[in-house]
Amino acid sequence: MPLTDVFIRSLKPLEKPYKHFDGGGLYIHVSPTGSKLWRMSYRFAGKGKLLSFGEYPTVSLKDAREKREEAKKLLAQGIDPSVWKKQEKAARIIAQRDTFENIAMEWHETKTAHLSEHYRHNVLMRLKRHAFPKIGKMPISHLEISDILGVVKPMEHEGHTATAKYVLQNIGQIFRYAVLTGRAKHNIAADLQGALPSVQTKHHASITDKAKVGELLRRIDEYDGYFPQKCVLRLAPLLFIRPNELLSAEWKDVDLKAREWRIPAERMKMRRPHIVPLSDQAVTILKELEQVTGQGRYLFPASSNPEKHLRDNRILFALKKLGYASGEMSFHGFRAMASTLLNELGYNRDWIERQLAHCPRDAVRASYNYAEYLPERRRMMQEWADYLTNLRNQEGKKDE
Fold first, then answer.
1. Minimal CA–CA distance to 216: which of 131, 323, 121, 302?
2. Which of 53, 70, 187, 238 has the fewest beta carbons closer than 10 A?
3. Is 119 exposed, middle or buried (0-12, 13-18, 19+ CB in 10 A)?
4. Residue 163: which pLDDT band, with cuts at 50, 70 and 90?
5. 263: enclosing H helix or E strand
6. What is the Cα–Cα distance from 341 to 286, expressed in whole angstroms?
């Protein structure tokens, strides 16, 4: 006789467990503690087996009957419901573990470890801001092209096409990692090539006209703001390294007697050490700065917190205060200035590229070439500093 809710609710615990059948192998098991558990007995490959469906009333009579019918359908297909249930549970656990966000964090930890902290921070912030809120909790193996488009297309419509391309690139890298580690079958982001419009490359604003360079240097000399900030502006054209690498400089890495600054790999964009020869002019500036910040960790500590270094927005603010709009001169533009003018002056391109820390594609060569062309680079850096001094002193003179 089929069970009813009224009958099941009326069942009381006894000294020994007992059961009442509903039909098709389904029954309610009543334990001495009073719990009422749904079970189903069945035979598979000639053996008696048992399925558990949960506890009443959390699993209702209707739910238990539906589970029984699902099990009977599997049996009709020659599938053991017990094995199927275990496989489904394992798949759910894997899906919960292998979400896009979890794999992305794993990828970020392992596959970007050789890059600079500044770059890694930017990548992670893009993912947290744009990707994780929409697809972070979804199993990566369940994601479809429409899900990825749902991340990047709104950014494009808001006019942030360049950022959308970066995010799509990162998503593609994460998918490739998931494929290699067996958590995804295909990199669906690769199918989206061309889904976003091309972005015209924007070069960092830079001044390369000799007369204007001289004017810029004179304005920097007249800057009356925070002294370490002024020293950044004075050193940027002389050293032409990446903004974050300059701002995060530490005194322990600077050797004024040896006239060089050795930047450790962990603070370089490509995670390879870099040697910066120091000209007479650079040494003079650093000695002045040492009297002010030499007792601390950073050459350029933040004015509000000496335990942290200056940020590039403070330098952009200083350039604006000097009269340079963002489209006219940028912090990064000092590198473009040096590269352009040094090439025009006829210096060996390899010397220039090495001093710019543009690593060659050959990974083996890149692993040891941080000291490559060092004597030549020392001479070039001093001659470059002298050249800038000459430009700065040419006020009112016609450029030759």
1. 323
2. 70
3. middle
4. confident
5. strand 260-263
6. 24
* Secondary structure of residue 22 in the 3-state scheme: strand
Amino acid identity of residue 257, one-letter, is K
In degrees and rounded to multiples of 5, residue 326 shows phi and psi of: -60, -30
Residues in the chain: 400
Residue 63 is predicted with a pLDDT of 94
Residues 59, 38 contacting (CB under 8 angstroms): yes
Tokens standing for 353?
């590229």
pLDDT in tens, 265-317: 888 876 788 899 999 999 999 999 999 999 999 999 998 898 999 998 889 89
d(CA 349, CA 320): 32
User: Which residue bears the tokens 């000639």?
Assistant: 46
CB-count burial class (<10 Å; 0-12, 13-18, 19+) for 241: buried
Cβ atoms within 10 Å of 76's Cβ, excluding its own: 8
Three-state secondary-structure class, residue 207: coil
pLDDT tens for 221-260 read 999 989 999 999 999 999 988 888 999 999 999 999 999 9
Q: Which residues are catalytic?
A: 242, 269, 332, 335, 358, 368
Region of 257 please: left (phi>0), alpha (psi -120 to 50) or beta: alpha
**One-letter identity of residue 151:** V
Tens digits of residue pLDDT in 368-399? 466 788 999 999 999 999 999 999 998 655 44
